[in-house]
Write a structure and sequence with these properties.
Length: 488
Amino acid sequence: MQSFDLVIKNARVVRPNKTGVDDLDIAIKDGKVAGLAPDIRAEDAGEVFDAKGLLAFPGCVDAHMHVGIYRPLAEDAVSESKAAAMGGVTSSLNYIRTGAYYLNRGGPYREVMPEIRRLSEGRFWVDYGYHVAPIESRHLGELEYLALEHGVTSFKIFMFYGGYGLHGKSDAQNQFLMLGPDDRYDIAHFEFVMRAARSLVDRRPELADYISVSLHCELADILNAYTTIVEREGKLTGLAAYSAARPPHSEGLAVWIASYLANETNCMNINLLHLSSRKAVDAAWTMQQVFPHIRFRREVTVGHLLLDTDCDCAVHAKVNPPIRPREDVEALWQAVLDRKIDWIVSDHACCSAEQKWAKDQPDNIWLAKSGFGGTEYLLSGVLSEGSKRGMSYNRMAEMLSFNPAQRFGLHNKGDIAPSFDADIVLADPHETFTVCSAESESEQGYSPFEGQELTGRVKSTFLRGALIYHGGDVVGPARGRYLHRPTR
């Protein structure tokens, strides 16, 4: 009788919280890692896969993605999860909310979340879950329902939505967010979200480690004022103009406000999302010292690590917060190397060319939509640029897999170890390739990374022991399972 379903032989196994890489075989049984050893007998397995000396990383946990923001969720889930698989991502956590875009509807999550689950089922090629934004005041009373019924334990605040839309200044926020006349999406609402999260922890102390509040830190008042100045002066164009219109100190100030509110409300788990600048990172690190009892986590995106305001991609790379000048990019990398950043994500949001820029003014940064895809380059981007800066493979595994898995209650993800899901990525750290959007599974049709040369290519991706990407192709049916957190 065979002991294992699959043995991956001749792998160079990269594990988080270790030093060095080990030459090991990986045994898999019932979708779990069943053993690691230098030479597991091939005859003990139903199937053998030769890794041929490639690096074996734990599957990436892309903890910041968006599905269904610009396309119907059911369609977006298929194509964008395939893109995730080709990038070595095996778990996708997606931010979603009520209001314009996404499902284009308001209402209670008792009605919205079952629809999201229905539209998602059977359409993901990777395991998937959701973060939810409490937009309406009535959503504050639904956090326990979301946590218990749907395993949603992380909640988001878009701080700039206070007076800014997804793409620019707005004086119709209630219409954009589909709020009632008495609702306000403002700093007071942000405070009440944190209080609701704290109240949930008090009622359900077993969830204390997993209930968290994530914040997009930019302030609408600053954005409105500086956008007016930059547009009026007309000295800057493209990504440089957009960065100046949403200046780094707006991020930093928002981080301070969010941190103070976390202390005021005793909301212990705070995630500061996609920090894009030196000022934002400095503010986040300062707040950790000011409020040491708050369990802050700090995030950056692969886009902010690979792109700067001088890149040729122009409107293709419009995103919130903006792509920054090169000095900010290098400051982010230094923060990564100094362990001031906890995880790296894609912030993937597929926005097709037909929607991304204005047809009659394709170079106008102000008319372009915000957001772009990039999950398919998450591991390769970090491998390529991180290796140049002396970042160890083990540290990459921590930031791309283990750390986000731990924070968001995915106990069976993020490591190649017995009892963990057999989510494994085989990568060649020496293969160089040029990013070509035509090769991506994403329906976006372009990439701000187009033409970039990256060293470190994903060759094969396994989800719970099943091959889902190999040889440049997505393999097999959609096997993604819903991640009801915390997982067991």
